[in-house]
């Protein structure tokens, strides 16, 4: 964690309630990582490397240091599995990841054949305004929610693994088998 006056950088952890915490790495502050209210996340996602601005300490009430994200330095993850839903003629992904605190809007031209009720894998393509949902596009239709194979594929893709082996890997595996 680097410190410049009242700015710090670190990796943010986001709870399922949408509150963020950035580990400051100082032993004396153990368990007192700066807390970032959901309205101050400024599009930060769980695992992102961020720069935060510390708020002035309060004289009364909670002694926990609060802060806000002022810059996303690098993203940890931009793709999510979940179920396609539609409301008011707008399509969106309801992410499976409990640390993803907002739905992802999917414009009709980015559905790639996906329909409401299907489990899909989506990539965020744009998120500039913290007051709006991020926009994304469907990369792959995984299947029916609750189906064992569909859920396993969703987990594998959420963790960043490919479902298909490259042709080179397949050819090497055949050589070993011979």
In terms of topology, how is this protein built?
Elements: E1 2-4, E2 7-14, E3 20-22, E4 35-36, E5 49-54, E6 67-74, E7 79-87, E8 90-95, E9 104-106, E10 119-126, E11 135-143, H1 148-158, H2 167-177
Antiparallel strand pairs: 1-2, 2-3, 2-5, 3-4, 5-6, 7-8, 7-10, 8-9, 10-11
Shape: globular
Radius of gyration: 20 Å
Strand content: 35-45%
Residue runs with pLDDT of under 50 for 5 or more positions:
none
Category by helix and strand content: mainly beta
**Run of helices and strands:** EEEEEEEEEEEHH
Largest sheet: 6 strands, antiparallel
Helical percentage: 10-25%
Describe this structure in words.
With 178 residues, this protein is mainly beta. 12% of the residues lie in helices and 37% in strands. Strands 1, 2, 3, 4, 5 and 6 form a six-stranded antiparallel β-sheet that branches. It has a five-stranded antiparallel β-sheet with strand order 9-8-7-10-11. The chain is globular, with a radius of gyration of 20 Å. It starts with a strand and ends with a helix. 22% of the residues are buried.
Task: Name its key features.
5-stranded antiparallel β-sheet; 6-stranded antiparallel β-sheet; mainly beta; 178 residues
Report a brief summary of the structure.
By secondary structure, the chain is mainly beta. 12% of the residues lie in helices and 37% in strands.
């Amino acid at each position: 964690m680097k410190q410049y006056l009242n700015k710090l950088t670190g990796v943010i952890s986001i709870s399922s309630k949408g509150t963020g915490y950035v580990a400051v790495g100082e032993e004396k502050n153990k368990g007192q990582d700066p807390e970032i209210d959901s309205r101050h996340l400024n599009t930060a996602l769980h695992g992102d490397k961020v720069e935060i601005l510390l708020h002035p300490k309060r004289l009364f009430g909670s002694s926990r240091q609060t802060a806000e994200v002022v810059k996303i330095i690098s993203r940890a993850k931009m793709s999510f599995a979940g179920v396609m839903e539609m409301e008011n003629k707008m399509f969106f992904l309801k992410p499976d990841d409990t640390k993803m605190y907002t739905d992802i809007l999917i414009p009709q031209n980015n559905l790639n054949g996906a329909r409401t009720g299907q489990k899909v894998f989506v990539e965020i393509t744009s998120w500039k305004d913290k007051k709006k949902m991020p926009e994304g596009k469907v990369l792959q239709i995984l299947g029916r929610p609750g189906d064992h194979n569909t859920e396993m594929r969703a987990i594998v893709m959420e963790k960043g693994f490919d479902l298909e082996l490259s042709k080179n890997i397949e050819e090497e595996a055949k050589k070993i088998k011979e």
